[in-house]
Design brief:
This protein has seven helices and no strands. The chain is mainly α. Helix 1 packs antiparallel against helix 2, helix 1 runs parallel beside helix 4 and helix 2 packs antiparallel against helix 4. The protein is elongated.
């Protein structure tokens, strides 16, 4: 499920940057396999809960798996949103050279990959690293917004295309948020600590 979600993000951004409709169409077609996996994983988790009535760390792991499953499904949905924005963007002249959006995508994908690795390895240090990266992603999103706003003010013909790029940056930031959710769940599984509303303290 994580591999599918990560690949969809990669293809969607590559399709946007290269104006490659074939890549974009692959993302749009990937929705059904991911949705089927979402249902299957939830079903397995609920079966474990019903049959074995797990306690302590086992219970935390299964509950977290249900939440992580939903986060991954939403990452895939956000990749589809990026692909849809890419289709619209391709109908306009480029607003500017792509620099920060690919950087955002690289960071978001790395956060997602690290969060899943942390889950598999029960690695709270790696999970904390994911939480720390979220600020970098937020700063890039704000930078992209300011830059594109300048373009729109200078040349109103860029407004429609620039708005799509702002949306893409927002989708990528949300993917980072879902990776952060997964990292917080890893800390909860391993340490039984809920760091959702004070993530900066989670390394203490």
């Amino acid at each position: 499920m994580g591999g599918l979600a990560e690949e969809e993000v990669r293809l969607a951004v590559k399709g946007l940057v290269n104006r490659d409709r074939a890549l974009i169409d692959r993302v749009l077609a990937g929705d059904e396999p991911r949705n089927a996996l979402h249902i299957e994983i939830d079903g397995r988790c609920f079966t474990l809960l019903a049959l074995y009535q797990p306690m302590a760390a086992d219970l935390r792991a299964i509950v977290a798996a249900v939440k992580i499953n939903t986060d991954l499904e939403r990452v895939g949905d956000l990749a589809v949103n990026v692909a849809e924005a890419a289709i619209r963007y391709a109908t306009h002249p480029p607003v500017k050279k792509f620099v920060d959006i690919p950087r955002m995508a690289t960071i978001a994908q790395a956060m997602l990959r690290d969060a899943l690795d942390a889950f598999v390895r029960r690695d709270t240090a790696l999970a904390q690293h994911v939480l720390d990266e979220d600020d970098t992603l937020d700063a890039l999103k704000s930078q992209i917004f300011r830059e594109l706003l300048t373009y729109m003010l200078q040349d109103p013909t860029t407004i429609e295309a620039a708005l799509d790029l702002i949306l893409v940056s927002r989708h990528l930031e949300r993917i980072g948020d879902h990776a952060t959710n997964i990292a917080e769940d890893v800390i909860f599984i391993v340490s039984a600590r809920d760091v959702r509303h004070h993530a900066a303290e989670s390394g203490q």
